[in-house]
Design a protein that fits this description.
By secondary structure, this protein is an alpha/beta fold. It has two domains: about 10-130 and about 255-330, 3-Layer(aba) Sandwich (D-Maltodextrin-Binding Protein, domain 2); about 135-245, D-Maltodextrin-Binding Protein, domain 2, CATH 3.40.190. The chain is built from 14 helices and twelve strands. The chain has helices at about 10-25, 50-65, 80-90, 105-115, 145-155, 170-180, 190-200, 210-215, 245, 265-270, 270-285, 290-295, 310-325, 325-330; strands at about 40-45, 70-75, 100-105, 125-130, 130-140, 160-165, 185-190, 205-210, 220-225, 255, 260-265, 305. The strands form two sheets. Strands 2-1-3-11-4-12 form a six-stranded mixed sheet, sandwiched between helices. The two termini are about 25 Å apart. About 45% of the residues are buried.
């Protein structure tokens, strides 16, 4: 299994010492100018105007004031995010003036499905902005109105289940549920969140799985029956239970978790810059302006949630492990 390493405190201190020594070596030059002295480019591996873009703009509207510079986004949708990562790793200098802002869950699953052209340990996520747990939901007029209905029907026949894309944390949650209960599910990719909600509402599929923020936005047209993680919003997800509580499982939370990433070499070669990035990033969560900006984009307040390199690394590693486990089922469509 491939494991994404994190930049924890011990590693950071070692890096700082190593970098200090490197400055004394002949032929090695390290810029000593005040950081940042120019704008920071940020690769977003999805389309402009999408959920990641809205989240990025909300967060950086606060972060830019603490860091003292502007963030310049570049959008590279394609191949479920792979294009953006390939460009970031292949064409951007590892100098802490370029970052990537992605959705860790589905985008890390890409590497479990097919390894990229770069070493996935050459970048890491250091700043999680939010967590949006995935869930199982039906259309309001569906004959399957309870979780017991779903399981019982799934033991009689194969149920079709909408998902925004095959390699997605919601898909893994559904497969784990089938494995635990013996219900038979057939995942059907329905072209993004809107299509996945519509599939359940119209009856195109028996039910759907998706990140819960989109399900909350769908209002009374849908009913949530199970959350693949903590139900942080109660009635807004119909008080649906956590899969672990409902079935005595120990599944990691299946999340849409957006986070900033950086070249590992940048953090190692410029520890002072990396420290300023992480310090100012953390400070944003203590600023009321961040919640205001997040809510203005339609964000769910309970989902705004800080995570550092250690938390991000643990989540990314769990996605790689589960992706490898369910690869044959996730790559069949």
């Amino acid at each position: 299994m491939t494991v994404i390493n994190t930049m924890n405190r011990r590693g950071f201190l070692k890096t700082t010492v190593a970098a200090s020594g490197a400055l004394a070596l002949p032929g090695i030059v390290r810029a000593q100018d005040a950081y940042p002295s120019r704008n920071i480019n940020t690769i977003i591996p999805t389309a402009e105007g999408g959920g990641a873009d809205r989240n990025f703009r909300a967060f950086t509207s606060v972060w830019k004031n603490k860091l003292g510079t502007e963030f310049e986004p570049g959008y590279y949708p394609g191949a479920s995010g792979r294009v953006g990562y390939e460009i970031y790793m292949g064409k951007h200098e590892p100098d802490a003036y370029s970052l990537i802002f992605g959705n860790m869950g589905p985008e890390v699953l890409n590497w479990a499905m097919q390894a990229p052209d770069f070493d996935i340990n050459d970048y890491f996520y250091f700043g999680q902005v939010d967590v949006d747990p995935c869930c199982l939901f039906v259309g309001a007029e569906s004959p399957l109105q309870t979780l017991d209905d779903v399981i019982a029907e799934g033991k009689k026949r194969r149920l079709t289940v909408g998902t925004s894309r095959m390699a997605h944390p919601a898909s893994i949650g559904l497969l784990a549920l089938g494995e635990k209960t013996g219900a038979d599910f057939n995942l059907v990719p329905l072209q993004g969140g809107k299509g996945t909600v519509a599939g359940a509402v119209t009856g195109e599929v028996d039910f759907s799985v998706l990140t819960s923020g989109s399900v909350i936005a769908a209002g009374e047209s849908v009913k949530t029956l199970l959350v693949f993680g903590k139900n942080r919003v109660g009635e807004r997800l119909n008080n649906a239970p956590d899969i672990n509580d409902a079935f005595g499982m120990d599944l990691p939370e299946m999340l849409s978790a957006r986070a900033f990433g950086i070249h590992r070499k940048a953090a190692e070669d410029f520890p002072d810059r990396y420290e300023k990035l992480t310090t100012t990033f953390r400070e944003c969560f203590d600023d009321p302006a961040l919640m205001e900006a997040y809510l203005a984009t339609g964000g769910t307040p309970e989902y705004l949630s800080y995570g550092g390199a250690e938390e991000c690394g643990a989540f990314a590693a769990s996605m790689l492990e589960l992706g490898a486990r369910y690869k044959s089922l996730l790559s069949g469509a």
